[in-house]
Automatic annotation (TrEMBL):
Transmembrane region(s): 42-59, 65-86
Ranges of Basic and acidic residues composition bias in the record: 110-123
Pfam families in UniProt: DUF3040
Keyword entries, A-Z: Membrane, Transmembrane, Transmembrane helix
Name of the featured protein: Protein-S-isoprenylcysteine O-methyltransferase Ste14
Residues covered by region (Disordered): 90-123
Length: 123
């Protein structure tokens, strides 16, 4: 639903007053980066750190064992960060997705109905 001209003017005034009072907050709120973009970048960075850890792990096996331990720690940390970012992206997607209305019929009843329709050739 589009805003009326009066509502657009009021919104512009509110944005201008916010920018005048607290420019840092206005910049943060006006950021165009979506959570998906932010966490996507974080997951990409975690992937690169994981690869660096893998290189250190292999190189440390051939030279100094401390590099292997450092590589393993980097790989483990990158995995935790990537999984956390992936979870936040999927949570944000499910929050914006419209929820299906729950059916009053129990699950098994719906499955039996689908089976019956399939046997009759309706599905």
């Amino acid at each position: 639903m589009a805003l009326s001209e009066e509502e657009q003017k009021l919104l512009a005034q509110l944005e201008a007053s916010l920018a005048a009072e607290d420019p840092k907050l206005a910049q943060t709120l006006g950021s165009r980066n979506t959570p998906r973009q932010i966490h996507g970048r974080r997951a990409t960075l975690a992937g690169l750190v994981f690869l660096l850890g893998l290189v250190l792990l292999v190189a440390g096996m051939q030279t100094v064992w401390v590099l292997s331990v450092l590589g393993f720690v980097l790989m483990f940390t990158a995995t935790i960060v990537a999984l956390g970012s992936w979870r936040k992206v999927t949570d944000a997607q499910t929050a914006t997705r419209p929820q299906a209305k729950p059916s009053s019929e129990p699950f098994m009843g719906r499955m039996e109905d689908r089976w019956r329709r399939r046997q009759e050739g309706d599905l």
